[in-house]
Design brief:
Elements lengths: L1 H23 L4 H7 L14 H11 L3 H13 L2 H19 L5 E2 L2 E5 L5
Antiparallel strand pairs: 1-2
Length: 116
């Protein structure tokens, strides 16, 4: 049970840090709110079946892609990719904070956080 709460606190920290960095760059807050839930487009895979749904959803809800883009955007100084990567990372952190985890192919509600 403690591990589940540690992961939720970690999600909260990632969410708050993403918001902090976003704010220090003077990016648009209406744009933040508009784009915050775009990673949930990954749920489209569930139209086909639970297995494909889990793969697509997890691809959109792992920190690897947005953090990789964040580093790339920093190196190449591409502000719009940096901006969206922060929003994407904030979304994942928010999901973890609320208890939404990576999905198993058995069912949408079967997540890595539920099994802890």
């Amino acid at each position: 049970m403690m591990n589940k709460w540690l992961l939720r606190i970690e999600g909260l920290c990632v969410f708050l840090l993403s918001i902090y960095v976003y704010g220090t760059n003077d990016f648009s807050w209406p744009l933040f709110l508009l784009l915050l839930f775009t990673p949930d487009v990954g749920m489209i895979g569930y139209v086909f079946n639970h297995e494909r749904g889990a793969v697509v959803y997890n691809a959109f809800h792992t920190y690897s892609l947005p953090l990789g883009l964040l580093v790339l955007a920093s190196i190449l100084e591409i502000q719009w990719i940096f901006l969206y990567s922060l929003i994407w990372t904030a979304h994942i952190g928010m999901d973890r904070m609320l208890g939404y985890g990576l999905k198993y192919p058995t069912h949408f509600k079967d997540t890595h956080l539920n099994r802890m």
